Amino acid sequence: MIKNIIFDLGNVIINYNQKEIINHFTNKKDEIKYIYDEIFHSPEWILMDLGEITNDGAIEAINKRNKFQYAKLTEDFLQEWYKKQTINKDIVEIAKTIKENGYNLFVLSNMANLTYDYFKDNEFFSLCTGIVISAHEHLKKPDEKVYKLLLDRYNLSAEECLFIDDDDSGKNYEAANKIGIKGRRIIPNQAEDVKKLLTEYKVNFKRKGKIIDENINDM
Fold this sequence. Notes:
The protein is of the alpha/beta class and 219 residues long.
């Protein structure tokens, strides 16, 4: 029986659409390629997620590696990109109802300190019993250790947990499944697929008032 719902943040609670984010900064092909190749897919991006390098440190390292060719773009992007993300309010509403129905909510996300600090005061986080952020722990998915850390820290049974993650590589939920946590990949930013997953595992995401109304109508 599922008692605990574990949420990823990017493309679940927070809309992390790289193409949309980049469009706020440039429409030039060379600059778009640069952001994808030298920022999003850089070793510094991984180090920020692990909390091993600061945002300013990443800017300096990326610019040095690229001989300052796109220095202003690098600085502008890394100082502002996370502010271009939006909250998926429809999924937050689902989370609220799940909480009202007696489930415990948790976060397990790969995220840099600066990004988490920007979003941490959103109402979603007040719903959560526990939050594990990669930059705080110096561990990131799909490392099995970070899943076990969550389970151990909050005294959770893996078989009572459902993990909601959008990772298209499959590695994140496969690592979770390996240690007994239930779940599969969801379509990024899709509330309907979140509902579908919850239905698959018999998690009640309907408001109590709505259920009562439906029962009355059936009488």
